Amino acid sequence: MTDEKQEMIDRVYAELENVIDPELDIDIVNLGLIYNVDIDDADNVKITMTLTAMGCPLAATIVSDIKSSLEELQEFGEIKEVEVDIVWSPQWDKSMMSRYAKIALGVHES
């Protein structure tokens, strides 16, 4: 992977930190919901993620917020299309959260 591509992936992750899970009030990156960000040779972005629970009623809202958070990168031609792929494997659990998210939510590790 080129340095330029890695920089753009890092920028996408930074923008995704602005997407807040409406139920938990923590961003989706620190919650550990983002499994992968890939940018192809045509500058299309594919985000592979999960949700905290199957059947989450806010899935469409979160996907919409993700796409909105990346609009500025699209407007400046840095990325093209954004695809969000929601997967259920591996299943999300609290161990995937960052230390910040665990502290904010009062999750104690044993």
Give the end-to-end Cα distance, rounded to a whole number of Å.
37 Å
Number of strands: 3
Helix content: 25-40%
Radius of gyration: 14 Å
The major beta sheet can be summarized as: 3 strands, mixed
Structural class, judged by helices and strands? alpha+beta
Residue fraction in strands: 5-15%
Tell me which CATH architecture applies here: 2-Layer Sandwich
**Total helical elements:** 4
What's the average pLDDT? 95
Low-confidence stretches: none
CATH third-level topology = GMP Synthetase, Chain A, domain 3
Q: What is the CATH superfamily label?
A: Fe-S cluster assembly (FSCA)
Order of secondary-structure elements: HEEHHEH
How many domains make up the coordinates?
Answer: 1
The CATH C-level name is Alpha Beta
Pfam family, one: FeS_assembly_P
InterPro entries: Fe-S_Maturation_MIP18 (IPR052339), FSCA_dom_sf (IPR034904), MIP18-like (IPR002744)
Protein name: Metal-sulfur cluster biosynthetic enzyme
Organism: Sinobaca qinghaiensis
Report on this model:
This protein is α+β, with helices and mostly antiparallel strands and 110 residues long. The protein has one domain (3-105): Fe-S cluster assembly (FSCA) (GMP Synthetase, Chain A, domain 3, 2-Layer Sandwich). Helix content is 34%, strand content 15%. It has four helices and three strands, in the order αββααβα. It has helices at 3-16, 59-69, 71-75, 99-105, and strands spanning 34-39, 45-49, 82-86. Strands 1-2-3 form a three-stranded mixed β-sheet, with helices on one face. A hairpin with a 5-residue loop joins strand 1 (34-39) and strand 2. The longest helix is centred in the first third of the chain and has 14 residues, at 3-16. It is globular. The N and C termini lie far apart (37 Å). This is Metal-sulfur cluster biosynthetic enzyme.
